[in-house]
Each structure stands twice: as C-alpha cells, then as structure tokens.
Amino acid sequence: MTFLEQLNEWRTSHSILFGADTAPYCLDQRRRYQGRALAVARPNSTEQVQQLVRLCAEHQIAIVPQGGNTSLCGAATPLNDGQSIVISFERMTQIVQVDADNNTITVQAGVTLAQVQQAALAAKRLFPANWAAAQSCQIGGALATNAGGVNVLRYGNMRELTLGLEVVLADGELWEGLRGLRKDNTGYDLKQLFVGSEGTLGLITQAVLRLYPLPTAHATALVAVESPAAAVDLLRGLQAEVGDRVTSFELISAPCLDLLHQHFPRLPQPFQPIPAWCVLIELSDGGDSALLTDRLAEYLYAHGCMEAYVAQSPTEAADFWRLRESIPEAQRIDGVSIKHDISLPIGAVPDFLQKCDTEMLSSFAGARIVAFGHLGDGNLHYNLFLADKTAGVYALEPAVNDLVYRHVAAYNGSISAEHGIGQLKRATLQDARSDLELHMMRQIKATLDPLGLFNPGKVL
C-alpha cells in the first residue's frame, strides 16, 4: 500500500484532510509563510500519532507538527515543496488529570492555554502562563516554542512550568516521561531537549505542568515614567519592597498608546497627554486585594509617581490589561512592520533603547519605533514601521535586523526571547550561536531524528 493509499484508508479514523481542505493549515498567522502539504492529519490519541509517525518514517515523508497555528516565526507552517504532512493536535483536547495535592495538571497537547487555566481554577489552583493568544494557542505548541508571556517575571516560562512529557520519537517509539516530580536526578533531564525544540526532535503528545496556590489578592497600576531607566529603578525598588509579589511589569512606549488610541478609541486612555513611557504593574498574593492595592498606591505615591492610576476594581484592572494585550492587534491593523522579539539583561534595556533608537532613526527615513514588552524579564518587542506599510517593507528587513541584532549582541542578548526561530530566524541563528553550539545542536538533531523528517527547514 502506498503512503497516500494508507492515509486515505485512515481518512475517517485519523481525520485526514486532502486538497483544498489543507489550506488553513498551510498559512501562518501573520500570513507571511504559505506552504503546501500532501495532507493534514488530525489524530485524536497518542497511538494514532505513533501510527502516523511510523508510516512517515517508512516512506520518508516529512512531518510538520501544528498546534493552534499561532507561531509568529513560521515554525508550524509546511515548506512550499508539498512533500510533507501536517499533524495537527487540535483533536487531542483531554484534561487527563488535575492533582491538586501535587499541584500538577496533566493534559494532551491540543488543550488550549485557556482550558488549562480554567481547569486549574476549578481546582482552586493557578496555571500562571498567560499571553494574548490564550484562547487559541495549544499547550503542545507553547512547549515546543518555550513560550513566555506576562508572568515570566514571577513564575518562569514554559520550561520552568513543565515537570514531565510524553513524546513520540522519530521511529514512532513513545518516550513516557509523564512524571510530576520536583526532584528527580536520575540522569539527564530529557524533557528539556523537547521544550523549545519547535517540533524538530519529537512530537509532544502530553505534558505534566506545574500548578500554584490561587492568589486571592491582586493589585494593578498603570504608571507614567520619564524613561526606561526610571522604569528599571521603579521595578527594582518595588521588588525590594514587596519581593516576588511583583507578578508582571510591562513597559509600554508612547507609539503603542498612539496606535491604541487610533485603532481602538473605545479603550480607556487615562493619560492626557500621552507620556513617553509607562509601565503596567501587577502584584499578586494571598490575603485581601484592598490591602495589597493600598500598599501599591502608597509605594507609588511615596516614590514620586504622581501620574499613576491604581485600579480600584477587577473591571478597571481588566481594562488596563486590555490596553497591553491589544497592542499587537493595533499594530496589525496599522500595517506591516518589521518585528523583533529580543531579550537583554534588564539593566541594559535603557541603554539599548537609547543607542538602537538613535541609529535606527538616523538610518531609516520616516522610521517609527513601537517598543513594548516584559521589562521584568528583559524581553522587548522592538518593532519598526516605515513609510511602506505593505509586505514590500520586508526588502529592508535584512538591514534593519543587522542593526538591531548588532546592538543586541553588544549586550550579550538574544535574538529570540519567546517566539522561537522557525523559518524567520533560521539563517540569523547561524550568527547568533557559536560554531560549537550549532555543532552540538546538529548532533542532537541527528541522534533523535536521523532521517531529518521532523519539521524540516525550521531552526537548523
């Protein structure tokens, strides 16, 4: 039986799509990468994933794993050669177990972030990972890209939130590593090979994730600051005052607020006029929200933050967060921009912004820099709009990237903080990592995927 004949036989049981039905799975979220696939398979169990991988290995057909298709780097999009299949995990949506005593939750790869959060909440626990695509992104994809979000400052990214994995390997064998242990020193920590590997080493089918006690107190504030340096000073002072109660600390520039005012005029705009910079702060703890809110307000007042809006209700806090979470959509509506997801030592962020902005504005006429991000963990989304707001602007992307990444390298930063490498940064990775590091990565890839069938054209 040929490869396609076997897929056709599995058309119903494995939910196989052919032809025009594959189109939505072959276009990335940013509509930048358009690929082609022989078929799209939508298994509903680990066993079906194993069967598909074994079939592909037998016929040497490449596999592109796909979660919610929310990748910003083309990591989940097939190449345009039409020689691969997409394995979508959208039907693997089972919450396998919530263990409140052990503070863990076990889920299949297709469960969305929002569903994990809701299941944890039902058990009076917190799953702290949080970002704008929570309703659509799937846990398998979040693990494959080591996703971050707004709460990394306190809880870490997906790597820190993962205790165990179940992974289908390149020959279809199953690695059953679903352990919910905080301490396990029995050799190499194999799960960390797969977290952040973007589906190039194995297919994650289940995961055991950390849960935390549910905070009962929250305090949220939107605060104008004179500069990124002042924001760093505020962060350090607040951490000295309340410790790890600082859950999120987001930096937002004036161009972000301008875009929000232009494209979402119904969103609250507390600042008049708009300040050059502001920060969105959230504290969380046990106890009473009113007491924590009062403490935050007192600290901000005592330290001269005269233009500070401290949320007086959960609704007002949610409005502040809607501002932050709407920035990417406002950018999308405004047009095509050249985007960067970078990380730097926190103390280097102000100097980076000053030097990179100066060179950028002098090098590209009409440049508008839209910078925002997770200052608490040094992750900036540093995006550039030019006069051309169509895809034609990508002709300037190599020159813009060279400038940005040169400044990133000067501070020993990273070209990818939380979005991954995918197709977008594959070539750039060759300059961002040493020859030895790249050699070790290729050795790992060759060992775990000797035929090179898992997500070709991504990362390496």
The residue-averaged pLDDT reads: 96
Query: How many DSSP H or I helices?
Result: 15
Q: Radius of gyration in whole Å, from Cα?
A: 23 Å
**Kindly, what is the distance between the CA atoms of the first and last residues, rounded to a whole number of angstroms?**
33 Å
Can you tell me the CATH architecture of the largest domain? 2-Layer Sandwich
Estimated structural class: alpha+beta
Major sheet description = 7 strands, antiparallel
CATH C-level class of the largest domain is Alpha Beta
Lateral arrangement of strands in the main beta sheet: 15-12-14-13-17-18-16
- Taking pLDDT < 50 over at least 5 consecutive residues as the criterion, the unreliable ranges are none
Kindly report the CATH topology of the largest domain: Uridine Diphospho-n-acetylenolpyruvylglucosamine Reductase, domain 3
What best-fitting shape do the alpha-carbon axes yield? Answer: globular
Task: Give the number of DSSP strands.
Answer: 18
Strand coverage percent: 15-25%
Helix proportion range: 25-40%
- Number of domain units: 4
